[in-house]
Design goal:
EC number: 2.6.1.-
Distance between the termini: 50 Å
Oligomer: single chain
Number of helices: 13
Strand content: 5-15%
Number of domains: 2
Family: Belongs to the class-I pyridoxal-phosphate-dependent aminotransferase family.
Protein name: Aminotransferase
Cofactor: pyridoxal 5'-phosphate
Keywords: Aminotransferase, Transferase
Length: 394
Amino acid sequence: MSVTAKRATEAAQAIRKVEAFFTSYSAAVKETPAVADFTFGNPQEMPLPAVVNALKTHAEPQSVDWFAYKTNESDACEFVANALSKELALSFEADDIALTKGAFGAIKMAFTMLLEPGDECIVPLPGWFCYGPMLAAANAKEVQVPLDPVNFDLDLEAIAGAITPRTRILVVNTPHNPTGRIYSRADLQQLADLLEVKSAEIGRRIWILSDEPYRRIRFFGLGFTTPAAVYPHTLIDYSYGKVLLAPGLRLGYLAISPTLPDGEREELRTLRFAVQMADGWNIPDAPLIYALPDLENVSIDIAALDRRRERMLGALGQWGYKMTRPEGTFYLWGRAPGGDSDAFAARLQKSGVYVMPGSVFDRPTDFRICLTATDEMIENALPAFQEAAESLLD
């Protein structure tokens, strides 16, 4: 008999593809050092000076309790609520904000608050590969629903068909990882209308978890609408790690939609402390909480990301790659030459170029490029992309 809990085994199974890729990738880099690493959203240059300065400033104790236990510190929550109200044009209050260890912590908190054992959560395909293991660990079920195959819009018909009496949460990731799609207010309103009807049909509320860690990384001057603006039963998770390009700084929050009916809003508010404690003291480290106001308006160079995006799209397009033009995030998503992303990634590895195969996203025909690579890396990698296209494309 196994000594481990079933949900732990299921979580391990759900993350197996990612773990296998990471293991093989790490081994490959040791044998063939990276000329260009387009895999994970890690920094390839030194951190932003403003981030370093904020950390240095707030790591210096100013009182005897500087590093004491922290919870949802009132000043920090008030600051986030005011900033979020201006950004999303909704009236958030401090008690709507739970400070968490990045978006991971916020998503975990939402799952803990809303899911009963056996509940179902609908997630987009392709999509972030950590929803599944987190749901398994929560003793809940991931239900993958494909996005529209042409433009990666929300497929309302597919979502409606996936809803059952056990459906509790629908994840909306906007801007979307890995495709870069940003959903319009009209799209989200149609989704909200659908969920109102379906919630009434099944006799229980279906919630939206709006996964927004890339909310401030947008191209073309595009605006942004959060699902919370059109659907009151929405929780928002956010991470500062993306826009700061510092994923190792675990700073984020979970926000309750201020349009939620007062009784339900208050019920969630009162759960904050207990759930965060039960989730392993899911609170950012003290210096990060103090630094939050200094970090709020710091950003990676979006213009540089846009330049890299255009350079890659132009080069890959001329060699026959079928790529999706992202509206946000720092990724490119496209079809692997020959239709086998694992074979394509292995071929690039021989030249020291590393991409993430779509098999990690349950889309084995596609691949993802991370634009946090430097300009030099991109230029050095382009000959390998050209060679792969010429060899693998029919």
